[in-house]
Amino acid sequence: MYFIGNAFASANCHQAEYRVGEDCCPTCPAGWYVTKHCTEYVSTSCKPCKEGTYQDDDNGRERCYSCTDCNAGVGLKVKKVCTPTSDALCENLDGYFCIDYNRGGCIAAQRHTVCSPGQYISQRGTADKDTECLQCANGTFSDGTSSSCKPHTICESMGLKQIQPGSDSTDSECGEHDVNTGLVPGIIPGLILVIISAIILTQRKKILAQPLNTAAINIC
Questions:
Q1: How far apart are CA 138 and CA 166, in angstroms?
Q2: CA distance 200 to 195
Q3: Total Cβ atoms within 10 A of residue 192
Q4: Rounded Cα–Cα distance for residues 7 and 41 (Å)
Q5: Of 60, 113, 140, 196, which one has the greatest count of Cβ atoms within 10 A?
Q6: E strand residue ranges, the chain
Q7: How many CB atoms lie within 10 A of CB 211?
Q8: Cβ distance 12 to 36 under 8 Å?
């Protein structure tokens, strides 16, 4: 309980007083709030702030301020817990950067940009800055998670043939050369000749195996 005997003596309130209409009442200290204003005979009634609320200065308020909620759902976490005499301070979660500050704490954060396939990370995000992404140059590729683009594989330099050309997000696809490709045109005609020769040889053997017919021979 606080009482200033001459609270009603002047409408010009002192530093430790607050105005109620045309009168002045003693303030409540930090961490407390007003439950009943003073009268000519009774000083201001005060109570301590409830959990989750605070009052950071001498005051004549009838309620305490609500503590700031450092909500993980919006990319924030507690940097300093709330007390009856001071508000909570928040900071950004990992993977986020702060976009708005107040009294030394972050009050709004945004998730770092994720670079797309075909881009590389030119500057990784920090607590104060977003990630910066740049496009890969021709002949290079990236899946968006690296800090530089890689050159496409040159299949011919490895003794391979290119099956699929590279893009800005994928490497070239290489494969083995087909060694039988050049032999096919010559193998087929040769195989046909072998089959025909086998058929002719089989027919000749059948003819030679037949007995001679001498029943119709007459000697004159």
A1: 10
A2: 9
A3: 10
A4: 10
A5: 60
A6: 17-20, 23-26, 32-36, 45-48, 53-54, 65-66, 76-80, 89-92, 96-102, 105-111, 119-123, 132-135, 140-141, 150-151, 161-164, 173-175
A7: 5
A8: no
Tokens of 28: 């409540």
> pTM of whole model > 0.70?
no
| Residue 88 structure tokens | 């909570």
Residue 73, SS3 per DSSP: helix
Q: Say whether 212 sits in a helix, a strand or coil.
A: coil
Mark out the alpha helices in the chain (DSSP H runs). Answer: 184-208
Q: Are 149 and 176 in contact (CB under 8 A)?
A: no
Q: Is the pLDDT of residue 4 over 80?
A: no
The tokens for 121 are: 């990370």
Q: Minimal CA–CA distance to 168: which of 149, 155, 153?
A: 149
Task: Give 173's strand partners.
Answer: 164
- The answer to whether the Cα torsion of 197, 198, 204, 208 is positive or negative is positive
The token pair at 166 is 């590279």
How many other CB atoms are found less than 10 A from the CB of residue 75? 23
pLDDT digits (tens, 9 = 90+) for 30-68: 999 999 999 989 999 999 999 999 999 999 999 999 999
